[in-house]
Design a protein that fits this description.
It is found in: Cell membrane; Membrane. This is Probable membrane transporter protein. Keywords: Cell membrane, Membrane, Transmembrane, Transmembrane helix. Belongs to the 4-toluene sulfonate uptake permease (TSUP) (TC 2.A.102) family. This protein is mainly α and 272 residues long. It has one domain. It has helices at 4-27, 33-46, 51-79, 85-90, 94-106, 111-131, 147-162, 167-176, 181-206, 223-244, 250-270, and strands spanning 217-218, 221-222. Strands 1-2 form a two-stranded antiparallel ribbon. A hairpin with a 2-residue loop joins strand 1 (217-218) and strand 2 (221-222). The relative contact order is 0.22.
Length: 272
Amino acid sequence: MPPVGELIWFAAALAGAGVVAGLLAGLFGIGGGAILVPVFYQIFGLIHIDEAVRMHLAVGTSLAIIVPTSIRSFLAHKARGAIDVELLKSWILPIPFGVVAASLIVASVSSAGLRAIFAGIAIIVGLRMLFNRQSWRLGSDLPPNPARAGVGALIGLLSALMGIGGGVLNNTFMTLFGRPVHQAVATSSGVGVLISVPGLFGYVWAGWGAAGLPPFSTGYVNWVAAALIIPVTLLVAPIGVRLAHALEKRQLEIWFGLFMMVVAARFFYSLT
């Protein structure tokens, strides 16, 4: 068993990550997984969780936390009437389809492979946050099916592989096709629900019976870590929602983009 000092540091670090994740959930319409996954990976290493399952456990636990966080954020945004309900309805099948495909990949990919996937997507997300401009447009309205369904499936696939709620990807999609950023953020909270719920079950299935998992884990989901962070994220997510409707987020986007680039570099370095 780890020393008491390590356990206290473990709990404090997770609580801090939970505050950041909850704020991001409301502010950017994301589940905070982009913060939680690298934090989990490092902290799980400090308590000597097997490297073979550490990254899988970080991603799966992140998705489990995003379930209540995204639901809370979705309800808060829905109360403001800013969500594109039609888009969410059109993605009820495509997004979970992408999540299921991700679960099949996770069941067979190595820890190094999953870190490489996370780092690759993190670079794309980081560049988007650093260089995105609200004036960029690909069209005046969202594309119809089958293109729309394909985008939904891709968002589900990439988000589930990375352990994120899909907000950054959906925000990019919606704003590129002329939708207001506040509507994109609000709708992304619903996208997070469509990703995290099937993602939770997918990672439980993918890791069922895996060797090296720590106590209180079901597949690739550790419930101790989830229990420590979920209450914090639920408390602060509504604060993020209020900030989303009141603040200029460009500086925050830049810092978040830089963070993602550093995380990507860290994971790529771990592969050498």
